[in-house]
Amino acid sequence: MNVKYEPPKVWSYTEGNGGKFAAINRPTAGARIEKTLPEGDHQFQLYSLGTPNGVKVTIMFEELLELGIKEAEYDAYLIDIGVGDQFTSGFVAINPNSKIPAMLDRNNGKPIQVFESGSILLYMAEKFKKFLPEDLAGRTKVMNWLFWQVGSAPFLGGGFGHFYSYAPEKFEYPINRFAMEAKRQLAVLDRELAKNRYVAGEEYTIADMAIFPWYGLLVKGKLYDAGEFLSVHEYKNVIRWADEILARKAVSRGRMVNRVQGPMTEQVRERHSSEDFKGKSID
Which architecture characterizes domain 136-247 according to CATH? Predict the structure, then answer.
């Protein structure tokens, strides 16, 4: 950085302060627009976007459906965070934090609002008793890695991803700081996956679903276009794990739901049934 910044005694908000999301970011909470959310026919109503956090949840739904659990059918509606859909009154009523994903379980007339991707994964795993071990030791290991992901990914996304891909200028210090941390996290995963088939052991769980859209897609060159910069080829165990998860049919479907990037053949902007995937595929 060539210009020295001296923080004022009291910070104040400046509109349009730079970066990809400058037009919508504000230091306030609550609804900005009065607008209800659309609703479909299924028990579960998901409001999301095909970011890594959104993909975690759509993978979970598709994995449950892949097991033949028809009760896990869901409607998925696109929330365009670039235009501020997350600040509508309907969305804020489900998630006061105005972040995707958010979910409504109609729950036989006693609706339950669920927000935060890790919370939704845990909710669905407990509701259907899938992808989460019932024994204390196995469950705890999965929870360790689930919480590792929700605590670590902000350094990868809001730290490295922001300064490497979204900031209005490239600054050496924050990119170096967060690149170092991203590589440290990849090294942690690589060491664990040298011992196990999956993150928390030999069974595929919600820990894998949570970690894969961030770190699995990163090592496969599908996140921030940063594979070469971060030398992701060094993390051979993470790559092996990511390849195995990428081959899962439910994961392919989950990656396409609420997706707004790439060819239209890779996008299922709204999802209401398996028919929505006809003619669609993703690498």
Answer: Up-down Bundle (1.20)
